[in-house]
Amino acid sequence: WALVGVNVGDNRLFYWNSRLLTLTEITETVKDDSVVADTGGRIGTIPDLRNLKVYLQFCEEEEEDIILLMSPIIFYNYDPQNFNVQLKPEHRKKFKKWNKVPLHILDETITSIIER
Fold first, then answer.
1. How far is residue 109's CA from residue 116's CA, in Å, rounded to a whole number?
2. pLDDT, one tens digit for every residue, the chain (116 residues)
3. What are phi and psi of 104, to 5 degrees?
4. The whole model's pTM is what?
C-alpha cells in the first residue's frame, strides 16, 4: 500500500516499519531556519502555500506498521536538552549552545530521539 500526504506548515509525518524496526520521516523541513515562528505556510482566509508539499511513501503490508502525524507542539516537545542528548561530534565543534543550532540539525536530532 502507499501513503499519500499533503502538508502546509510544519507538521511532521512519520512511517514506522514494524518488520525493519525503522522510523522514516516522510515530511521534510522546507522553512527558513532563521525564523522559528514562521511555519512556512498556512491555510485559512489568507492562505500561504509557500511550502505546500505532497508526499508519497510506499509501505509494507504489515498490520503493526504505524503512521504518525505530529503537530509542531508534539514534535518540539522532544527537545534534546530534556533528554540529555548531545549533538553529534561534528556539530558540537561548530555550535556551543543549543539555541545556535540550525533547525535542520535540531530536527535530525529530535527524529533520532523519537526513533528510540
1. 11
2. 888 888 887 778 888 888 888 888 888 755 555 555 566 677 778 888 877 888 888 888 778 888 888 877 776 676 666 677 777 778 777 887 776 777 777 777 777 777 76
3. -65, -35
4. 0.60
- Output phi, psi for 63, to 5 deg: -60, -30
Nearest to 55 by CA among 90, 8, 109, 93: 8
- The total of other beta-carbon atoms located within 10 Å of residue 4's CB is 9
**Which residues are within 8 A (CB) of 3 and not within 5 positions of it... i.e. 6 or more apart?**
13, 15, 26, 55, 56, 57, 59, 67
